[in-house]
Write a structure and sequence with these properties.
This protein has about 100 residues and is mostly helical. It has one domain (about 10-90). Helices cover about 75% and strands about 0% of the residues. It is built from 3 helices and no strands. The protein has helices at about 10-30, 40-60, 65-90. α1 runs antiparallel to α2 (about 40-60) and α1 (about 10-30) runs parallel beside α3 (about 65-90). It is elongated, with a radius of gyration of 15 Å. The mean pLDDT is about 95.
């Protein structure tokens, strides 16, 4: 569990850093390792949706941030990122 209750300023700063990292990774995947087929576009779209949900969770005040949801979104986004890269590597995408 990366985030815990009560959600505080230090956790918010780490979550913002994680969000920025996810956003940078998404832009990198979209530009450098662009999706080649429908499945890759779907995987990339799922990753983007998780990033948006992570951001929406962070937009709430500290006392209203659900740390469990934030942990779940962080884990799901990491899995989506790895799934996309795994598919690129297996199919010899942009490598």
């Amino acid at each position: 569990m990366r985030y815990r209750k009560p959600f505080d300023l230090a956790q918010r700063q780490k979550a913002i850093a994680a969000f920025r990292s996810m956003r940078r990774n998404y832009k990198l995947l979209r530009r450098v390792y662009a999706p080649a087929d429908r499945i890759e576009r779907s995987l990339l779209r799922d990753y983007r949706d998780l990033i948006v949900a992570f951001r929406q969770t962070l937009d709430r005040p500290d006392r209203l941030v659900d740390a469990d949801t934030l942990n779940d979104l962080d884990t799901a986004a990491t899995k989506a990122f790895v799934q996309y890269l795994d598919r690129k590597i297996r199919l010899g995408g942009a490598w």
